[in-house]
């Protein structure tokens, strides 16, 4: 199972924001869309990623005034991405190593989706169920 399979099931929608929107606006978007991260874009250029953790950290550091700051000040600018052919296992390795739960998907330089740890776990479980069923059939038919 790979990223293309995951996107086929969940679609290619990605919540994006510009670098100047405030943390309050970003938090509102995360809450409305029930997601954990937004990708920061300038036109077609990927500038960074902001997750709920970044907002919590900023408020802990600066107090409520942080909420009026633009996301470009707190975003992670070195974004790790994945490609359509990457396997679920590769995504799990990447998320574990980088200690984050979101991976934007890039195809030919363009943002074509995002995969969260929830998507990865869901597909890994489905894969395990299929493998178990195949093994059960193999055992009962032999
Ligand atoms: P998360 O676990 O996704 O909420 O993110 C935890 C931290 O990692 C936050 O500081 C995010 O900005 C950062 N982060 C999230 N996704 C990525 C990514 N794909 N590449 C680099 N940093 C990321």
Notable traits:
single chain; 142 residues; alpha+beta; two-stranded antiparallel ribbon; 5 helices; binds adenosine monophosphate
What does this entry show, briefly?
This protein is α+β, with helices and mostly antiparallel strands and 142 residues long.
Describe the structure in your own words.
This protein starts with a helix and ends with a helix. α4 (88-98) crosses α5 (117-141). The protein is elongated, with a radius of gyration of 18 Å. It has helices spanning 3-10, 23-33, 52-62, 88-98, 117-141; strands at residues 16-17, 37-42, 45-51, 102-107, 110-116. 46% of the residues lie in helices and 20% in strands. It is built from five helices and five strands. With 142 residues, it is α+β, with helices and mostly antiparallel strands. β2 and β3 form a beta hairpin. It has a three-stranded mixed sheet with strand order 1-2-3. A two-stranded antiparallel sheet has the order 4-5. Adenosine monophosphate is lined by residues 36-37, 49-54, 76, 79-80, 98, 100-103.
